[in-house]
Write a structure and sequence with these properties.
The chain is α+β, with helices and mostly antiparallel strands. Helix content is about 65%, strand content about 10%. It contains 13 helices and five strands. It has helices spanning about 10-15, 15-35, 45-55, 55-70, 75-95, 105-115, 115-140, 145-235, 235-265, 275-285, 300-320, 360-370, 395-400; strands spanning about 290-295, 330-335, 340-345, 375-380, 385-390. Strands 1-2-3-5-4 form a five-stranded mixed sheet. Helix 10 runs parallel beside helix 11. The longest helix has about 90 residues, at about 145-235.
Length: about 400
Amino acid sequence: MSGRAGAPDAYTWDRSFRLWDSYFAVVWVATLVFVLGADCPDGQPWPVVAAALLVPLVPWYVLVGRPVMRGDPAGERRAVRYLAGALLLFLPAAVLVGESRLITFALVAQCFMALRMRLALAAVTVINVAPVAGWALLWWPGGRDVFSNALSSLVTLVFSVAVGSWVIRIIEQSQERAELIAELDASRHELSRLSAAHGALAERERLAREIHDTLTQGFTSLLMLTQAVETEMDDDPPQARRHLALMARTARQNLAEARALVAGGAPADLDGASLPDALRRLAARHDAAVEVTGPVRALPAGPEVVILRACQEALANCRKHAGSSPAVTIALGYGDETLTVSVRDDGRGFDPAAPTDGYGLAGLRARAAEAGGTVRVTSAPGRGTAVTVRLPVPPVAAAGSASCTP
């Protein structure tokens, strides 16, 4: 059929088109042999005339018909033009010599390949009926000959319509399935692209959180310590030296965090240590106290990393917003199926409903949500702040008994 979607080599029909070329060639040669061997009653060279009319069908098919049947974008007009030219060559030959009708088997197939169904049925009817009618009017044969030829033409017409319609439906279904497969492939590639893009975005967000919770906080601490040292160098050298030592520890910690981030390993504080020990080291750098309740036990790395990062973010916020020297407490609680940490300070507090442009709390909530947990921030102006993170963890029976003591 004309107007098939896709490139010519997109379907098996197109890839095996040489079979149709061979079929046309075999039918044309057989027709030519039968025509040249036919007897003419009045001794005229009508077989030669019919053969001469059939010869141009070959270049006409190669130059015009073949591109049409392979889905020429020129459309159905060129298909009609091709078949009209083929009929102008075929019908006179079929009227002069009945053996020329053998090529009907090639032309009927081309009608269904090149035209829409209605036009194809009309063309097939003309190809089967017109030669017999013209032959009968030209030669006036006997009634028995007319009847047998007419019956043969009718049978050929019915067979052509039935088989052609069936083949066309199969072709249309095959093309629809091929288009559906192409759409599915395109959807699969698009889904793969979107999945890769989503994965890249998720990874960027993860790295942003890691950098914010580790390197950024460390650099902020270094900057604040540097400012403190500048004011203490002349007035309080011992305090300045203590702050310089703290700067060195913070820089080393930042370097360890950077190496862990590049290597994709556990945070530096958790490397080879339990979660309570990591929180104690973190609290020592921020002059905070640590309280641990419940039986301490080994847990998967994911919840422990979330708890550690939550404490880092909360302590950094205390240093920046709670005021001068607030009292800070980290409370870590091991439950049967939950792990909870609460970072409290007695600083100036704030209104949690007020809009903020920072990334810390939003990143903390996103990190906790990925682990299936929740974040609750309790604060009020002048009443301090409490940041509580609650995460689900494997129950005691699955995680094992305590491996260390608080």
